[in-house]
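To: structure subgroup
Subject: Chain for Friday's discussion

All,

I'm putting the inputs and outputs inline so they're searchable in the archive.
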Amino acid sequence: MAFYQFTRTQKVNASLDEVWSFISSPNNLKEITPDHMGFNITSGEVPKEMYPGLIITYKVSPLLGIKMNWMTEITQVKHKEYFVDEQRVGPYKIWHHQHKIEAIENGVLMTDIVTYSPPFGFLGAIANSLFIKKMLEDIFDYRVKALDKKYGEYKS
């Protein structure tokens, strides 16, 4: 089984409080997900802020418009520092996503570390090299633009 790790950093032109308030609210996930993915939370009303043990279900169309059910659990939270979501049901064999933030001069440094394993053994490894890695890059590129639009571009 092949494992991959995707890391993205972004400097955000906002305070630690503003960024934490935004990223720790499940209701804001749709705002930072590309429209073409058709992201919709299906688990009903979600809390204002994530907490360990929170289960979030949603439908998403990551590939060719095919709707998929996805369930994640928020497994760890350290207020204003990080949280971790892990897939419980979905397209990957393993999905572990660390969301970290730290105050820097004039803003916040966000770091995302996604450790994942596609399904289907060697076919999943081929799919990763053909399109999964690129798809993740595109999703996080979109998020960079969405956060820059929301808070303004970071100026050091």
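Points worth raising on Friday:
Strands lie at 4-12, 40-41, 55-60, 68-78, 82-89, 94-104, 107-117.
The CA atoms of residues 75 and 107 lie 26 Å apart.

D.
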